[in-house]
Amino acid sequence: MLKHSLSILALLCVTGTAGASLADDETVTLAIDINQPSLFSADQKDAFKSTIDDRSGTTAFDLLCSAGASAWLGLSRIDQACALSGSGSIKNPNNPSQSLPRVSYSGGYTVVAKQDGYTDATTMLANYLRAGSAPAQNSSFKGGLILKPEHPSQSATALGADLIKNLQQTATGTTAVTYNTQIDSVRFDGFTVPDVGQRDSAACSWTGDAIYAYANSAWQMKLDVKCGDKAFKIEGNMPLVDAAAGSDWQQEYDLNLVLPGVGGGDPFAAADPFAKVDGITGVVKLKNSGRATKDGVYEHVRVDGQFTGSGVPLEMVRGYAEIMAVLARTYFGA
User: DSSP string spanning 293-305?
Assistant: First the structure.
């Protein structure tokens, strides 16, 4: 009887409709436990344990990464390698409390120093397990990344220049304001996380730039995203701010990614928590503990985030959470 019930559950999970109308809001949660001993001992490895959850399924990633990206007193860059493992389950659309194992993850990625941070994503593997009528199959992440290059792309540099121009135009007072023009950049080149494994789910590919601007301690993003046969342009920011007084966390990222020209608003402006926009909004809370570097990077960080997508597919909202999980060192480390 139990075997028969599981077979029915598997069929429902894989053949049920995973998608929803783009008029519906989609919610995805992200949790990451971060341990970064390499900040104080270069022979140690850093661990990033993540969980992404939504109505379609639950994904767990474990990343084990070698020490940071410089050597010889910071005068040269070294390869940074991250090993990936993990698993994913899918939920029964008719009864989300029921789930089945669907995918396992393996492999890893290397940030190649001699190629100025180029990272091949196809070395991260996804093995889909048989479930119901859905066959077992092998897949992988797709595309590539350029992580924190010494020489950012022309489009990343232009995004930084646009931000500085905006800050100068909105500065108050008569005294000229000088801003730090330094940026850290991430270039997405068709970067694709495999889909969750439901019948109707479609992986999203991401192309464009995300820069962390030291001028305002915020990520600025301008991205083209394709989910199945649907294409979107999305832009906005994710500032790192101090948590409100009395919070049990110290910092937070406030995400405001909008679809330009669809009621989105200013991509450089702070998110209005009460506004209804088409895109992805959310708050990512950082609870810091342990030792901290002089730059304020903590050895231990607990991350709890919730993202809401409006007018965009669930896979796009989930994809953004998965990007933050796979690139946890970039967003939360050194």
Answer: -TT--EEEEEEEE
